[in-house]
Specification:
It is built from twelve helices and 20 strands. It is 31% helix and 23% strand. The protein has two domains: 326 residues, 3-Layer(aba) Sandwich (Rossmann fold), CATH 3.40.50.12780; 103 residues, GMP Synthetase, Chain A, domain 3, CATH 3.30.300.30. The model has no long low-confidence stretch (mean pLDDT 93). Strand 5, helix 8 and strand 6 form a beta-alpha-beta unit. By secondary structure, it is of the alpha/beta class. Strands 4-3-5-6-7-8-9-14-13 form a nine-stranded mixed beta sheet. Strands 19-18-17-20 form a four-stranded mixed beta sheet. 44% of the residues are buried. The structure holds 5'-O-[hydroxy(phenylacetyl)phosphoryl]adenosine (DLL). 5'-O-[hydroxy(phenylacetyl)phosphoryl]adenosine binds next to strand 7, strand 8 and strand 12.
Length: 434
């Protein structure tokens, strides 16, 4: 098997790591200045020359790049390598407007897959494992990234893609899958189906690598229990390569960013000021090894904080707290900032599963928010259950968490359409951002 746990890199002392980052950043800035006219234009506009960037201490001199820039430069405007050297594209799941298309050279693919291989190894994966990849394949990065990582580790790889739960469970049991890679909502969905079908004894899973959407500690606990596994978080975004930009180790205490390839900064989303470790702000990445899509200071809109506190796994790479929201998905309801993850926390604390939807509307200038959540099968079977009492309890708990009154509808099990990829948690009918 390839040994993609690389202690000489993953446990490198900080001064050596920063020297490596500086060396790579200087080369990368030269590369983008020479090969991407868009960057050259932006840097010229700011009066920054490549030779002004002598190391990571000069990173702040470079311009930020945003998703709007990516859309404006669609499709080829930011490509940094000759097309003859580009071998793959991936793309973001359809949002409105023009899609973001990311490009890869063969070396870029190798780096990305290596990051995913490190993630699988951090979750205990070896070439003895059977790795079921149930992220979507195709333009979405989840399937291709973990598939490549699984190959590099030498796992027997099941390229399932998402959906078709019957087939997922058949392969999982027949082939004895030991590692599951999918979105946390699909993992919860599979856990539910395993329970319904009484298959738990036939499941050999030991670890899950779940990411691509926000999920809470409570949801982690539920999934771990339903599947009998340890559940590891993994983070990434198409623009920066895909999954594996950061991932959890066995400590499950924040995700180590692969700093030999990506430099992370946290900024104040309003002012762009760089914030110190420990402060919550917007995560910004600079890719220092990618050639085909070499984004520098890309604003992710994900909000979190970084920590360099020593991790007992031995890895020295900085850890990011799981995204705590996005600077662009926070809902302002009745003037109050509301995060979908706060609502999920309350629902799970109250014994529900993560099958819910948040509907936001504005009627006569008045914001209305309704949380629809399903009863668990056990709750539905309870003869003493009084739905109205449950709804009142949830209203009170949500008021405690959010500070506003939320309408709650408790529904029968299976009323909410199940997700095979990223769950649609929020339906905001107010259309505030047209
Ligand atoms: O979701 C890449 C990925 C695939 C990550 C599989 C992990 C596993 P995009 O579709 O471009 O890429 O979406 C990126 O999803 O900016 C975050 O807002 C969110 N996201 C990704 N991972 C996590 C996570 C993939 N672990 C956007 N926790 C990011 C919370 C996440 N949010």
């Amino acid at each position: 098997m390839g040994n993609y746990y690389q202690p000489e890199i993953e446990t490198m002392p900080l001064d050596k790591l920063q020297a490596l980052q500086s060396e790579r950043l200087v080369k990368q800035v030269q590369h983008v200045y020479e090969n991407v006219p868009f960057y050259r234009g932006k840097m010229d506009e700011m009066g920054v020359k490549p030779e002004d960037i002598k190391g990571i201490e000069d990173l702040h001199k470079l311009p930020f790049i945003t998703k709007d820039d990516l859309r404006d430069q669609y499709p080829y405007g930011l490509v940094g390598a000759p097309l003859k050297d580009c071998v793959r594209i991936q793309s973001t799941s359809g949002t409105t407007g023009r899609r973001v298309v990311a490009f890869y050279t063969q070396e870029d693919l190798d780096v990305w897959e290596e990051c995913c291989a490190r993630a699988i190894m951090a979750a205990g994966g070896t070439n003895e494992d059977v790795c079921q990849v149930s992220y979507g394949y195709g333009l979405f990065t989840g399937g291709p990234g973990l598939n490549g990582g699984s190959h590099k580790v030498g796992c027997l790889t099941l390229p399932m893609s998402s959906g078709n739960t019957d087939r997922q469970l058949q392969f999982m049991t027949d082939l004895g899958a030991t590692i599951l890679c999918c979105t946390p909502s699909y993992a919860a969905n599979l856990g539910e189906s395993i329970k319904e079908r009484g298959l738990k004894d036939q499941i050999k899973l030991k670890a899950g690598i779940f990411g691509a959407e926000p999920w809470t500690e409570e949801m982690r606990h539920d999934i771990e229990e339903a599947l009998g596994i340890k559940a590891y978080d993994i983070y990434g975004l198409t623009e920066i390569s895909g999954p594996g930009v950061s991932f959890e180790c066995e400590e499950q205490a924040g995700m180590h960013i692969q700093e030999d390839h990506f430099i992370a900064e946290i900024i104040n989303p309003d002012t762009g000021e760089v914030l110190p470790d420990g402060e919550i702000g917007e995560l910004v990445f600079s890719c220092i090894t990618k050639k085909a899509y070499p984004l520098l200071r890309y604003r992710t809109r994900d909000l979190c904080y970084l920590t360099r506190e020593k991790c007992s796994c031995g890895r020295t790479h900085v850890r990011m707290h799981k995204p705590m929201g996005r600077s662009d998905d926070m809902m302002v309801i009745k003037g109050v900032n509301v995060w979908p993850s706060q609502i999920e926390t309350v629902l799970l604390q109250q014994g529900y599963q993560a099958n819910y939807q948040i509907i936001v509307d504005r009627i006569k200038n008045n914001d209305k928010i309704e949380v629809q959540v399903e009863l668990t099968p056990e709750m539905a079977e309870d003869e003493n259950l009084n739905t109205e009492v449950n709804e009142r309890k949830l209203v009170a708990a949500l008021r405690g968490m959010l500070g506003i009154t939320v309408n709650v509808k408790v529904l029968a099990p299976k009323s909410i359409v199940r997700s095979e990829g990223k769950a649609v948690r929020v339906v905001d009918k107010r259309d505030l951002y047209k």
